[in-house]
Amino acid sequence: MLRRTAFELMSGHLSRRQFLAAANAVGVGAAAAGQLADRASAMASDEGVAPARIVKGGTGGRIACEHLREWGVTHVFGNTGAYEAGFLDALVDYPDIQYVLGLHEGPVMAMADGYARATGRPSFVNIHSITGAANALGFIVNAFADNSPVVISVGLSAASGENLGVFTESFRTESIADLYTKLAFRVSNPQNLAESLRRAFRLAEGAPPGPVFVGIGSDVLGGAVDEAAIFPRSRSAAAASIHPSAEDALRAAQTLAAARNPLLVAGAELSRWGGLKELAAIAEKLGALVSGDSAASRSSMGFPPGHPLYLGAMRGPAGAAGPVDVVLLAGASRLTLGRGRERLIPETAHVIEIGIREDHLARNYPVDQLIFADARETLAAIDRILGETPVESAALGRRRAANEKIAQRRRAALEAELRAVWNKTPIAPERLAAELNRLIEPNAIIVTEGVSSDRQISDYIAVDAVNGERTHLISSGGSLGWGVGAAVGAKIAAPARPVVALTGDGSFQFGLQALWTAQRRRAPVTVVIFNNHGYQANRWAIAGLKGRGAATGRYIGIDIGDPDIDHVKMAAGYGAGGERVIAPEDVAPAMARARAASADGKSYVIDVVIGRRGPGAEAPAWRE
Ligand SMILES: Cc1ncc(C[n+]2csc(CCOP(=O)(O)OP(=O)(O)O)c2C)c(N)n1
What we know:
Layout: H1 2-10, H2 16-25, H3 30-44, E1 53-56, H4 60-70, E2 75-78, H5 85-91, E3 98-101, H6 105-119, E4 123-128, H7 129-145, E5 150-156, E6 183-187, H8 193-205, E7 212-217, H9 218-222, E8 227-230, H10 246-258, E9 262-266, H11 268-273, H12 276-286, E10 289-291, E11 326-330, E12 350-355, E13 369-372, H13 375-388, H14 394-421, H15 429-439, E14 445-449, H16 454-460, E15 471-474, H17 482-493, E16 499-504, H18 505-511, H19 514-520, E17 526-531, H20 536-544, H21 548-552, H22 567-573, E18 577-581, H23 587-599, E19 604-609
Parallel strand pairs: 2-3, 2-4, 4-5, 5-7, 6-7, 9-10, 9-11, 11-12, 12-13, 14-15, 14-16, 16-17, 17-19, 18-19
Antiparallel strand pairs: 1-8
Helix pairs in contact: 1-2, 1-3, 2-3, 4-5, 4-8, 6-7, 6-17, 10-13, 12-13, 15-16, 17-18, 17-19
Bound molecules: thiamine diphosphate.
Thiamine diphosphate is lined by residues 138, 451-453, 478-481, 504-507, 510, 532, 534-538.
């Protein structure tokens, strides 16, 4: 109580005399109260410590709104229920905080995730009870997999109904998200709401970031709060960076400089939080090849695709000029084993790994030097050291030339592959990706959920984070249906940038309701469906068993082409335009119409029919 009063003194809401009177009222002696007042005033003075803002009266809902305003939250992604009434009612008086309604909690969560990724700031979700939390869970998994700072507030049944089996009783609701959030907890006392939300936001953005789940009783959101202290956002600083030690950077630089044939791997953290430029600089100094993250890691693209030393995503054991003796895993990849359980990096190589996503460090592979630190900063330090002690030599020159040839061979192979399928109808995914690469704007955000076409998308669509050309968002969580929602969230975050979602037809059907929100918020996105009329990735898995499915051509649960889904008509139901495309030459005019629709505030769905391919593709269409 006295602390609160001290905050009021600090914030100028109380005079010194009023403070001393209040202290006296709660039995604090005059001398002690005077000292307290001095300290509070000193904190509020030029020392630079900003005082808390005291909010008096109102409901928990109002406190939540005050907190959001303090944290600069301008959008609430939500779907409503009775338990959230106190919050929704208070929100009326906060026109600076917009409510973004989604028709299902899956898209709500995906939009908040896309928004957080596009802004780099925490986003806020408000959904209903166990019912909404259960619907959101698939995309909470995705947010957790990729360290998205999303604060998920969930309205819970009131304490007065506890254990009485009331309708949608929120019995241990927060436990549903336990394994897939940094923390899941509940607030039962309205007086604790401000501090609880501050904790949630600080945790969500603290390194490494991630979703946080806060269950809030309906009686907390609707209940009266006497007063609450809203601390300035500036006083909840999350660790901006975990710094590497000078010795760590020096040792890594020395190991790399002494390597005969080093390989650099651009892990997920670099495309999320920076460091690709520094990695490119190191590669150039060492003449070393750079591999993208392993394909299974599903990291965002971003390393300059045309870089003379770039190898693309790692899809099999790393090949370089001669045996690799040192591997730099920069930015904690989720490096898995290869398809046949083979190791992607040689067992005999000395491995240096840098990152902060602890769960992914030293996983599946031994690591000889682990640097638990911000990857960008560490790479910058290594690059600086390498720059001070140049490692130029004849051997290095030969290595650079040999490695550039390897990277060049890869680019040539991709061009040959593209030429071979260029005239196919229906269009081949390679050509579709290449056409889109020509057509998508340099300032676009590209969200991909291409599943069996992800390989072609990453090989033929250029994203260059170093030179600020396009931004790529992808989810490594595996819950499909995320793409369209994430794209709409990104568009809300960055209204001036074109946003294009590339998705499989199966994935599209898991999450297309976000198109309604896009229309309502005038946040138009372009969606390109890679439509093979089925769950191709799953057919590959069955075919790979070489069992009954392969022998009979009966792939159960794979075909979604009968009835042939009219994706365009479904999107039209949400207010979006669109068309189906079969001939390759029709992609460009369709994209032009999409651009015009966007300018008009309307989303556009281009449903491109692509052929089936890969294992089991030859079997005639069949459904169970
Ligand atoms: C929410 C969810 N349900 C089911 C799956 C399993 N699953 C993996 S791939 C896939 C098929 C996706 O189809 P589509 O988007 O058309 O891509 P394609 O495999 O045809 O390239 C499914 C259903 C999943 N990953 N996520």
